[in-house]
From TrEMBL:
SUPFAM superfamilies in the cross-refs: S-adenosyl-L-methionine-dependent methyltransferases (SSF53335)
Protein name: Methyltransferase domain-containing protein
Pfam families assigned: Methyltransf_3
Keyword terms, alphabetized: Methyltransferase, S-adenosyl-L-methionine, Transferase
Coiled-coil residue spans: none
UniProt lineage: Bacteria, Bacillati, Actinomycetota, Actinomycetes, Mycobacteriales
PANTHER family attached to this UniProt entry: CAFFEOYL-COA O-METHYLTRANSFERASE 3-RELATED, O-METHYLTRANSFERASE-RELATED
GO biological process: methylation
InterPro entries in UniProt: Cation-dep_OMT, SAM-dependent_MTases_sf, SAM_O-MeTrfase
GO MF term (any one): S-adenosylmethionine-dependent methyltransferase activity
Length: 223
């Protein structure tokens, strides 16, 4: 199959299962000059379904961009839930705030601006209630560091998702010099080696091309 066929399948899924109610968010992101690296609409709905399945009420997102995935996660946690999302670029955070407020979920979302590793250290010092789900979609070279922080901020049964790990299939190249590919391999191997985690990887195709994510669950003493 070709990428055009993958995109056609995405269009069908959007028409039948997802809806295009958030297209204004994507248009606002494009108008503001944000890079077009949001999750696709079917992937956004997939995050929503995962969060609903996990009955997540507290979600941590690392990498806000324009708030497209944030909106899906905020819907999933419900009116009594909260999403804490971390964004490095102040401009991106400003665009995201407008998108989230327009979508009617702004009051459920706290945006923290700054380097994610710094924000995570501050967040840990605050000793918040554990997060039920962590979605990692930021600078790829720090994926393993983000997973380690996620372990400190979650509980047994929490879900950790790392986006963009397949890298057009290049994750299979053990000799790759690409920093993002090496980081993807590192985070997959971290999940495999970490006794507190059990996980898998899943390849995806669609309008965003060929990629995939890592999915892990935090284990308890009885697991």
């Amino acid at each position: 199959m070709t990428s055009a066929e993958w995109a056609e399948v995405d269009r069908y899924l959007v028409e039948t299962l997802v809806g295009d109610g958030d297209s204004e968010t994507l248009r606002a992101n494009a108008a503001a000059g944000l890079p077009a690296i949001d999750v696709s609409p079917p992937q956004g709905k997939f995050l929503y379904v995962i969060a609903k399945t996990a009955r997540a009420r507290r979600v941590l997102e690392i990498g806000t961009l324009g708030g497209y995935s944030t909106t899906w996660l905020a819907r999933a946690v419900g009116k009594s839930g909260q999403v804490v999302t971390l964004e490095f670029e102040p401009k991106h955070a400003e665009v995201a705030r407008g998108n989230l407020d327009r979508a009617g979920v702004g009051e459920r979302v706290e945006i923290r601006v700054g380097a994610a590793l710094d924000s995570l250290a501050v967040l840990a010092e605050e000793q918040p209630e554990p997060f039920d789900l962590v979605f990692i979609d930021a600078d790829k070279v720090n994926n393993s560091n983000y997973v380690r922080w996620a372990l400190r901020l979650t509980r047994p049964g929490s879900v950790i998702i790392v986006d963009n790990v397949v890298r057009n299939g290049r994750i299979a190249d053990a000799d790759s010099a690409d920093a993002a590919v090496r980081a993807s391999r590192d985070v997959i191997e971290l999940i495999a080696a970490e006794p507190r985690l059990d996980g898998t990887g899943l390849q995806t195709v669609g309008g965003k091309g060929w990629d995939g994510f890592a999915y892990a669950i935090v284990l308890g003493e009885d697991d």
